[in-house]
Amino acid sequence: MAWPSKIKYDWYQTDSHVIVTIMIKHAKEDDVNITFSEKELNASLKLSSEENYKLKLHLLHSIVPEQSLFKVLSTKYVAVKIEQAQ
Fold first, then answer.
1. Calpha distance 71→2 (Å, rounded)
2. Cβ distance 30 to 38 under 8 Å?
3. What is the chain's alpha carbon radius of gyration, rounded to the nearest angstrom?
4. Is the per-residue pLDDT at 14 higher than 80?
5. 3-class SS of residue 30
6. For the domain bounded by 8-84, which CATH number is listed?
7. pLDDT tens digits, 35-75
8. Is the pLDDT reported for residue 12 higher than 90?
9. Using CA atoms, how far apart are residues 19 and 68, in angstroms rounded to an integer?
10. Strand, helix or coil at 13?
């Protein structure tokens, strides 16, 4: 499956979190599905009726899925905050 090249993402890490930013304009909360597992982030974003964007990140260290979250900021991006396990 070819993914749209116009969607980019960036990330950085602190002592306690991994922050992922998916650059997508005008995202709607209903069109964004992000799930977390112990060492993985899965994102699925519906771009149009025929186009989807999928992002799967394998994480080096364990995270706390229950304390990880995402927020859809419709102007420019989807922000994902992943809690690292201590």
1. 26
2. no
3. 13
4. yes
5. helix
6. 2.60.40.790
7. 999 999 999 998 877 888 999 999 999 999 999 999 998 67
8. yes
9. 10
10. strand
DSSP 65: G
| pLDDT of the residue at 24 | 87
Q: Coil, strand, or helix at residue 82? A: strand
The length of the chain is 86
Where do the structural domains in the chain lie, given as residue ranges?
Answer: 8-84
The Cα 77–Cα 71 span in angstroms is 9
- Say if residue 33's pLDDT is above 60: yes
Mean pLDDT of the chain: 87
Contact 40, 62 (CB under 8 A): no
Secondary structure in 3-state letters for 34-76: EEEECCEEEEEEECCCCCEEEEEEECCCCECHHHCEEEEECCC
Question: At which residue do the structure tokens 């002592």 appear?
Answer: 15
